[in-house]
Specification:
The structure holds two protein chains of two kinds. By secondary structure, chain A is of the alpha/beta class. Chain A has one domain: 2-Layer Sandwich (Transcription Regulator spoIIAA), CATH 3.30.750. Chain A has four helices and six strands; from the N terminus they run ββαββαβαβα. By secondary structure, chain B is α+β, with helices and mostly antiparallel strands. Chain B has a single domain, classed as 2-Layer Sandwich (Heat Shock Protein 90). Chain B is about 30% helix and about 25% strand. In chain B, helix 2 packs across helix 3. Chain B is globular, with a radius of gyration of 16 Å. In chain B, about 30% of the residues are buried. Classes of the chains: A alpha/beta, B alpha+beta. The interface between A and B is medium-sized, with 24 and 32 residues.
Chain lengths: ~120, ~150
């Protein structure tokens, strides 16, 4: 089971993932992120503080979005990784390619707030 | 008594829509064997990667198939998982590992990452092809320490 909550933090969008991001649930996250990208979102926080499981199907979606955002000079920050998921990010080499923050508030520090 | 059950088996239809059954089964198993969250997470991740790999790439036909998972635990809490499927021969030990974990994002591909997780989380892995079946044996050693959370 997975739930997504999208919100606006000024010019920055945030998507909170609640529950499990796996082979059965990743398509709805993929759709949500593609939709945000298509409608012009270039500053995005993905809040994982309530995500308690991830598999490679879910990581694929994060990587897809990172590539898209980079291609458009956008900024993607992932925050709130629980310990086992932080470990999976580490094993995957994802800690070095993503902007990682402990929580949403600290994630905002990655953005240039003057940018449109 | 349930507490003393040292063997458990799950026969899973080879269909990603049935993956919830794997999750539910592992949650019950970890309760019964008093495993911590870390152990449940690691086994769930490794098995999801293996099962989905078999479902996506293992079968040349559209017939229904089943994947059997046999779990056993010895006195030192070492858990042995035997995964048996009738898919195409696939030896994970000869599969290329994720070789791109140090590359920049633009060059990264996700392929191989699932296999990398299995090899990282499992203590030991052996593969046999037996009677037209893939038989993969995985050993998982719970750390026994309480959660990192």
């Amino acid at each position: 089971m997975m739930q997504l909550i999208t919100s606006d933090l000024n010019k920055i969008k945030s998507v909170a993932i609640l529950g499990r991001l796996d082979t059965t649930t990743y398509p709805s996250l993929e759709e949500c992120l593609n939709q945000l990208f298509a409608t012009g979102t270039r500053q995005l926080v993905i809040d994982c503080s309530q995500m308690d499981y991830v598999s490679s199907s879910g990581l694929r979606v994060f990587l897809m979005m990172l590539k898209k955002m980079k291609s458009e000079n956008g900024t993607l920050v992932i925050c709130g990784l629980q310990a086992p998921i932080h470990n999976v990010f580490e094993i995957s080499g994802f800690l070095s390619i993503f902007n990682i923050a402990p929580d949403v508030e600290k994630a905002l520090g990655f953005f240039d707030q003057t940018k449109d | 008594m349930a507490q003393q059950s040292k063997n458990m088996t799950l026969v899973l239809p080879a269909d990603t829509r049935q993956l919830l059954r794997l999750q539910t089964f592992l949650e019950e198993l970890s309760q019964m064997w008093a495993l911590d969250h870390e152990a449940l997470f690691a086994m769930n991740l490794a098995l999801e990667e293996l099962v989905t790999n078999t479902i996506f790439y293992g079968y040349a036909d559209k017939l229904p198939h089943f994947i059997q998972l046999d779990f056993a635990r010895d006195d030192s809490d070492l858990i042995t998982i035997v995964m048996t499927d009738d898919g195409k021969p696939f030896n994970i030990l000869q599969a290329p590992d994720a070789d791109s974990v140090d590359k920049p994002a633009e060059e990264r591909e996700i392929g191989g990452l699932g296999i990398h997780f299995v090899k990282t989380f499992m203590k030991r892995i052996t593969y046999e092809r037996v009677n037209e079946n893939n038989k993969l044996t995985l050993w998982y050693q719970p750390t026994g320490s309480s959660q990192q959370l």
